[in-house]
Amino acid sequence: MSKVDAKTKSAGIKFDDIKAQLMEDAAFEAEYNNLQPRYELISQIIEARKGMKMTQEELAKRAGTRKSNISRLESGSYNPSLDFLIKIAKGLGKDVHIEIR
């Protein structure tokens, strides 16, 4: 097998297959649904930052915070305040819009 073939060959189980299996558990599904808005927001922040070719450190400077706070936010291990999210959005040149559905 060539190096190219080895790199393109996927190993193991697909995430979607694992997720589908786990979603059969009602408690897991409820917790997943509770956390989904948080992870959607985190994904938007990471996507915006990377789209601007900006490092976590640069975003931290623009937002007036420390890189470790950006890292914790992006890893999902930090529950940010609305004020902090507004600072991050401004550091990205964006605004925060909240919608209750």
Automatic annotation (TrEMBL):
Record Gene3D superfamilies: lambda repressor-like DNA-binding domains (1.10.260.40)
Keyword terms of this UniProt record? DNA-binding
Domain (HTH cro/C1-type): residue spans on this chain:
45-100
State whether keyword DNA-binding applies. Answer: yes
PROSITE patterns found in the cross-reference section: HTH_CROC1
Write out the GO MF terms: DNA binding
* Pfam families according to UniProt: HTH_3 (PF01381)
Protein name listed in UniProt: DNA-binding XRE family transcriptional regulator
